[in-house]
Design a protein that fits this description.
alpha/beta; Aspartate Aminotransferase, domain 1; Aspartate Aminotransferase, domain 2; 7-stranded mixed β-sheet; 4-stranded mixed β-sheet; 13 strands; globular
């Protein structure tokens, strides 16, 4: 690895200044450069196209991350952008509503016949909070059992009021609860994916009225586990919510739950990330008997009525249907997993490969943080934005994947040839920080 790392001086200067005027430095935790390569990560982009990205220092990279999963149809998809630009020229926000939101709601209901009503938002955290508000407006049992990552809002982080370790394994370790009202204590409880006994005891002892979970975590859905949960909800009149902000539209045209028996279907579900292919749009869908209660509470926001998100989503769904994108990215993900395993075994590196096929990830079984940092550094040196997770895109063409694996093999070989102390000496930055548990 003789190449010099690309010059990112402009990016580093911008980020240094950003920390003085933007709390935390970035708007999204997962885009903190410290999570990838401290003081060397490119930080800011100037333009993107297909699977390529140019940073503010005018360096070009092949993006083998597609953080954080918003562009399964590639950057600047010409068919989607064409519809968005045409819409913008006619105006975006006005006194009246846009009819596209009704068309989008109909399409989502068509894909999910178990649901009859839809609400839209612009971020996953909002969508989760809306779903909780709707569910709580229906049930007299206000407490919630959660499994997974569900955003930053107070209702969710309240799980850590009793113990800062409660959300460990679901999101970031040891999340502080400063700013969360103490009266929310004992309103949200966590359970681990696959641990039905813990969930059953929560339902029995904690007045649980809502179960909210990611359908899939690091593996494909556990059908027996989900069937027990669905039965438990039916028996105790508990509202079941699937958070599919990440898993939706990656392995089928809609929620991942559509690939399984209808008995497992939820009462409410949310979608985001992939729905607008880079444009801000999230959806909450649900059964009429639950969703109609929105009229009895207050859920409203000005920018939920802007048109760009709904136009982009309609165009995204049309493009997904046309090319069957979920089949393409699933197949590519299977190819990635297979070749990761071949190369890990070839160089005797112990690593766990996980995730649904369209969202593969790996973890080094020893010295993960060190090896992950070195891996990111050396891939960057060779012109790749790469980490231990890939949100697969149709833009990851066969030739691009072949070129990626040539560099991947060289880096993995280097890791196998150096002990931890030697690897540490080869780092040109400090170790990366730990990110969301779902992503690492």
């Amino acid at each position: 690895m003789n190449k010099k790392l690309k010059n990112t001086n402009k990016a580093q200067k911008i980020y240094t200044n950003s920390k003085k005027i933007i709390p935390g430095g970035t708007m999204l935790f997962s885009k903190k450069p410290e999570l990838h390569l401290p003081n060397l990560w490119p930080n800011y982009f100037s333009k993107v196209k297909d699977c390529y990205l140019w940073d503010v220092d005018n360096n070009k990279y092949t993006d083998m991350m597609f953080y954080v999963g918003t562009n399964p149809l590639g950057y600047c998809n010409k068919n989607i952008d064409k519809e968005v630009i045409k819409s913008i020229k006619k105006g975006n926000l006005a006194t009246l509503n846009n009819a596209e939101e009704v068309a989008l709601a109909k399409k989502l209901i068509k894909f999910h016949p178990w649901a009859q009503m839809v609400r839209f938002a612009r971020s996953g955290g909002e969508a989760n909070a809306i779903a909780v508000r709707i569910a709580r407006s229906v049930t007299n049992k206000q407490n919630i059992a959660v499994c997974g990552y569900h955003g930053w809002h107070d209702w969710y982080l309240a799980a850590n009021l009793n113990n800062k370790k409660n959300l460990d394994g679901h999101t970031i370790k040891g999340i502080d609860t400063r700013g969360i009202h103490k009266n929310l204590r004992n309103t949200v409880y966590t359970f681990e994916y696959g641990n039905f006994d813990k969930l059953y005891n929560l339902v029995k002892n904690k007045n649980i009225g809502i179960i909210k979970m990611e359908l899939s975590r690091s593996t494909y859905p556990n059908i027996k586990f989900l069937a027990k949960i669905r039965k438990l909800c039916n028996q105790n009149k508990i509202i079941l919510i699937y958070d599919e902000c990440t898993s939706g539209f990656r392995e089928t045209l809609g929620g991942l739950h559509l690939n399984y028996d209808s008995f497992l279907y939820p009462d409410l579900a949310m979608f985001g990330k992939a729905l607008g292919n880079g444009y801000a749009i999230n959806a909450i869908i649900g059964k009429n008997k639950i969703m109609k209660n929105v009229a009895d509470t207050f859920i409203s926001s000005t920018f939920w009525t802007e048109k760009i998100g709904t136009v982009a989503a309609l165009s995204t769904l049309k493009e997904m249907q046309r090319i069957k994108s979920w089949k393409i990215i699933k197949k590519k993900g299977q190819y990635i997993k297979k070749n990761w395993r071949i190369l890990f075994d070839k160089y005797n590196i112990k690593a766990k490969i996980s995730g649904i096929d369209s969202l593969p990830s790996f973890t080094f079984e020893t010295h993960n943080q060190l090896k992950k940092t070195y891996f990111t550094q050396e891939m960057l040196r060779n012109g790749y934005l790469a980490s231990n997770i890939i949100y697969v895109s149709i833009a990851h063409k066969e030739k691009i994947l072949q070129e990626y694996f040539k560099i991947f093999e060289r880096v993995i070989k280097s890791i196998s040839q150096n002990d931890p102390n030697e690897l540490k000496n080869l780092l040109e930055s400090s170790l990366c920080e730990t990110g969301l548990r779902r992503l690492n």
